[in-house]
Amino acid sequence: MEFGAKGQKKPKPIDVFKNVKGRYTGLIKALTTDVEELYKQCDPEKENLSLYGLPNEQWEVNLPAEDSPPSLPEPVLGINFAREGMEQKEWLSFVAYHSDSWLLAIAFYAGARFGFGKAERKKLFDMINDLPSIHEVVIGVPETQQKEKPTVPNQSKNKSKPNASKRASEPQGMLTKLQQKYEEEDDDEEEAGEEEDKEDEEEWGIEMDVEEEEGETLCGVCEGKYAKDEFWICCDHCETWFHGQCVKITAATAEYIKQYKCPPCSSKRSRTHFTEY
Question: pLDDT tens, 250-260?
Fold first, then answer.
């Protein structure tokens, strides 16, 4: 989606803001009023999907852009895999965090592309910052929370600090809970199975002990050999190993995947056609 057509004058911060606000509105619809439809479209049986907010205040779940590099920054990849291993509220918060980050990336990409100076970038950021974050809307942070703070008497100033600190640390706290949850699940799996060579296990419970196998482990896509300095992931259905980059899975995304199904296994089921973003 372009910010302006050829031949038009250079966009101003307000033009970029309108584009971003349209996407912002679409994302909020997806994560609030349209949440049931969003949840249904993010089927873990499908390929890596992303949530896109569109300038016309609509949203869509789609495959990532095939262009390399893409014409715009891309949102987080694989939200449908993260859905499988998380409670709905936690999953929505997770998507909201990344949606906020994506909108800022688009805004400042446009600022760099159109040569915005320091004052123009600040103006753009201030307009975006006047909006509540998507995460705040999704988790229901009261809009009056900040407005009420200036009216607090001086003697109670210390009482307001814990609230501000709690709000600032809430995103990190939620991520910490998610990490603890998956670490506990990994510990349970380890106690039921092998407990040797724990240092050789990946952070997300993916074992890469290729010495026990006969012959060398090859990537199911490029047939490249296994290397310890690369991220690999194993399909839970066919038990084939893949380079993360070959199947477009990062180590961060893998943290939220409860059961990974590779593209060949996914294609065995009927696939839904997605129009190009």
Answer: 887 777 777 78
